[in-house]
Structure formats: C-alpha cells, structure tokens
Amino acid sequence: MNDSSWGAPPHTGSQAGYWGPTAQGPVQGAAPAGPAYDAPEAQQTRPMPTVPDVPAYGGDQDDDRGAARLSGPLFRDETPQAQTYDTPQVQPHGAVPQNPEPMPDAPQPAPPPQKKSAGRDLGAAIGVGVGLGVVIIASLFVVKAVFVGVVAVAVVVGLWELTSRLQERKGIKAPLVPLALGGAAMVVAGYVRDAEGAWVAMALTALAVLVWRMTEPPEGYLRDVTAGVFAAFYVPFLATFVALMLTADDGAWRVLTFLLLTVVSDTGAYAVGWRFGKHKLAPRISPGKTREGLLGAVTFAMVAGALCMQFLIDDGSWWQGLILGLAVAASATLGDLGESMIKRDLGIKDMGTLLPGHGGIMDRLDSLLPTAPVVWLLLVLFVGSG
Questions:
Q1: Of 14, 61, 331, 384, which is most buried by a Cβ count within 10 Å?
Q2: What's the pLDDT score for residue 134?
C-alpha cells in the first residue's frame, strides 16, 4: 500500500521501517493499529471521501489528497467527453438558456403562394408580336409582292435555325445553300405559278440537295440528304400555301383570316391552360400543354372562325367558320407538338434567340406551317380558289 495514499507523511525515525510503537514492539511492514502517539508531527487520519452521485466539475484536483474520480459515464448511453472546468454543464433552476432551440413541434409559417409564371418575358413577347403584326399587315394590304418577300425571308431564317440546330446537336449537315435558294424560289413560284410552280420548285430543291452533298465525303450522306429533303418540305413547301392563298381576289383577307385564327387558337390555349389547366395533354412531348388548354383553343378558334368567315371572306358563312376554326385548332396544336418533339430529340428549348420573348423564327412558325395547307384547302372547298 502506498504510504501517501491517506495523506500521512513518512516517519523519520532512526529505525528503518518503524511505523510507531505497539505493545509488542516494532513490527516491520505492519499497518499501525492507531495513531502514532510518539510522533508529535503526525497528522490525524482523514476519513475516506465518499463518491458523489454526480461528477464534480471543478474543486480540489490534487491527486496526493486522494480525490475521487468517476472512471466512466453516468448512464450507459452517454459518451465520455473531455472534462472541462470553466463551463458549467448544469443550468440553475429557473434559468433561461441563452440560445434556446425552437420546439420540434412548433408550427412553421406556411410559405406564401407562388404566382404562375409564363416562363417567358411577356413584355418582350407582346412587343415583338405587335411589331411583327404591323409589318405583316402593312405589307399584306399595301403591296402583295412585299408580303411574299417577308414570307421568303422568314423561310430562309427558319431553314438556317433548323439546319444549325441539327448540326450542333446531332452532327447532321443538311446543306443550307441549296435549301435557302430553293426555299425562297418555292415561295415565289407558288405565288407566280400557283401549286404547279410550287411542286416543280420543291422537286428541283430536293435534287439540288442531293447534288450539293456529293462534294463532301460519303460518310453520313444518306443521313444528311434525308434531313435536307425533310427541311425543304417542312419549312418552305408548307409556307408556299400562304402564297397560294394570296393569289385569290380576296387573298389578303384569306391570309389575314389564316393568321388571326392561328394566333387566336394559340392565345386561347395559353390563357385557358394557364388559368384552368390540370390534365396534361401530352406530358412526354410538351408538359405545359393541357386538355383544358386544347378546349380553350378550339372554343376561341371556332368563335373567331365564324366571325371571320361571316365578315371577311367573300361568300363565306358562319357555320363554315366553325368548321374552319375547329380544323385550325387541331392543326395548330399538332404543329406545335411536332416541333416540340423535334426540340426534345435535339435537347433544346428554343430553335433560336432572334425574337426576344419568343425564341427563334421557327418557334413562331411551328403552328403556322401545318395550318397553312389546311386553311387553303378548306377555303377552296367553301368559297373556291377565286
């Protein structure tokens, strides 16, 4: 046993190992039976300290005085931590903590409702739309040839956007030069030589695409010329039917009816779908389109069609306008979905950035192009080609 474990100093007598007198004399290594009376400097034996129930943080830490320590955590699920002496761990009764944590069950304020967003800059979109409308109407009713030129420019820009995206995203090199020249010629031929001239220009454009691509290596030839012929049909050939409508005596009003019905259909689909749309129309193609929006497009287009056929088209009738409006709503929606499918395959949102708030030219032609032959055909059936 350590001689200092109870706090008594060692004896300094002359006999080695002498711990104090006993009745039998000194005994080596024996524990004293009582206090050493012959040692005046001996101290009184101290009682064994009791182990506190709660570990003491602070106080006398002198190991020589035998201060007791806890060798483990008080509870089984506690992790031993380094003992600190300058920060109290127990708050006094009734004390308020400095940084109280929020109650876990405290109700959190509900987030403010977010307004629906159109996803585009509506101010820029409206401004660009009004500007384009002024240019189209002015050229349409002043000089028809100027309007044909506007259509030809739109076709060339649309071809440039489409071929550029095909090359960037898929590596498809549809030849732009024969497409642009043939596309502009197609629109002019449709206005000058009617449908026969449009078909001849289409055939020559496809042949020019095949020949132009031969100047490059044969790898990817079939892919490139197929894309070129598709682009020639999709953009300039469908746009040729606008020029065919313009050749009639009331051609300007026919074109205006075609434009108004398409715009009204798109506007009705957007307005009704944005406000009431809940059921997706084609979520894998265009998640923003809803069945309610399609119903709005049909309703708006049929009303506008009845008014246009009754007041704008010679010999037209309101019931013909209802049929025309229904057909326009269907073709415009399919055209929009068709270009959405192309853009999803290419992995892009817009075909271009030329028109602020709208995207590119092709993003405005998507519903107009497939609607043009539908309107031309129905007008010919209802009131003739006159």
A1: 331
A2: 86
For residues 333 and 302, is the Cβ–Cβ distance under 8 A? no
Q: What is the pLDDT of residues 172-195, one digit of tens each?
A: 999 999 999 999 999 999 999 999
Paired residues of 282 in beta bridges:
286
Distance, CA of 180 to CA of 160 (rounded, Å): 8
| Whole-number Å distance between alpha carbons of 360 and 362 | 5
Taking only the tens place, the pLDDT of each residue in 201-241 is 999 999 999 999 999 999 999 999 999 999 999 999 999 99
Indicate the Cα dihedral angle 289, 290, 291, 297, nearest 10°.
Answer: -50
**H or E segment to which residue 183 belongs:** helix 176-213
The answer to whether the CB of 183 falls within 8 A of the CB of 209 is: no
Q: Nearest CA to 310 among 300, 326, 294, 322?
A: 322
Residue 27 in this model has a pLDDT that exceeds 90:
no
- And the tokens for 288? 């923003």
What's the rounded Cα separation, in Å, for the pair 174 and 84?
A: 77
d(CA 154, CA 183): 10
SS3 label, residue 5: coil
Which string of b and e fits 123-150 if b means at least 16 CB within 10 Å?
A: eebeebbeeeeeebeebbeeebeebbeb
pTM here?
A: 0.69
Whether the Cβ atoms of residue 162 and residue 172 lie closer than 8 Å to each other = no
Which of the four pLDDT bands, split at 50, 70 and 90, describes residue 137?
Answer: confident
Strands (DSSP E) found in 190-290: 280-282, 286-290
Contacts of 205 (CB under 8 A, 6+ apart): 178, 179, 181, 182, 183, 185, 186, 232, 236
Q: What is the pLDDT of residues 238-277, one digit of tens each?
A: 999 999 999 999 999 999 999 999 999 999 999 999 999 9
